[in-house]
Amino acid sequence: IHFTMWLMQTCDLPNMTQYISTSPQHTQTIAADFAQTVKGGAVIFLNGDLGSGKTTFVQGLAKGLGCEWPVRSPTFTLVNIYPTSHRYLTRIVHVDLYRLNKASELDPLALEEYVNDQTVLLVEWPELLIGGRINPTNNVYMQTDDITKKIVIEP
């Protein structure tokens, strides 16, 4: 069974917060609220199938941290960096590893350099990082059906 599906079926695990979103705007609001709890150096892994709302979640989180730039999926650029007006978090680094096939392809990205007190690192498709170079401070799991999205945030 796919891990995300298993997690959604067992989301009564301790320390997990579950939300049901009914629209992209609602997902962004959930993420903006979550942004208020994020600290510098946070590494957030975004898990979910294509179209589950990972980039929409990043858009809301970025807005919650005072980013005024349009947030777009880094599927083809791999890494997008956005400045914020937050008092101590100066940038958001949004990474999409969907197109990478092996861990050695991560080397040129130098993701470790983005883990610091002034940055929040958000990684879509983090499977190549699991158990390796960078550990998440939070995992966000997203599952969608025709009408709603289930969002589970694990500290």
In short:
The protein is of the alpha/beta class.
Describe the structure.
The chain is α/β, with parallel strands linked by helices and 155 residues long. The chain contains three helices and seven strands, in the order αβαβαβββββ. The protein has helices at 3-9, 24-35, 54-64; strands at residues 17-21, 43-48, 79-83, 91-96, 119-124, 138-144, 149-154. A seven-stranded mixed sheet has the order 1-7-6-2-5-4-3, sandwiched between helices. Helix 2 packs across helix 3. It is globular. Mean pLDDT is 88; it is low at 1-10.
Instruction: Report the biggest beta sheet as strand number plus sense, adding barrel if it closes.
Output: 7 strands, mixed
Q: Based on helices, strands and strand pairing, what is the structural class?
A: alpha/beta
Supply Rg: 15 Å
Mean pLDDT, rounded to whole units? 88
β-strand amount: 25-35%
**Which percent bin holds the helix content?**
10-25%
Number of strands: 7
Distance between the termini: 23 Å
Q: Low-confidence parts, pLDDT < 50 over ≥5 residues? A: 1-10
- Total number of helical segments? 3
How do the helices and strands follow one another from N- to C-terminus?
Answer: HEHEHEEEEE
Overall outline: globular
In spatial order, strands of the major sheet run: 1-7-6-2-5-4-3
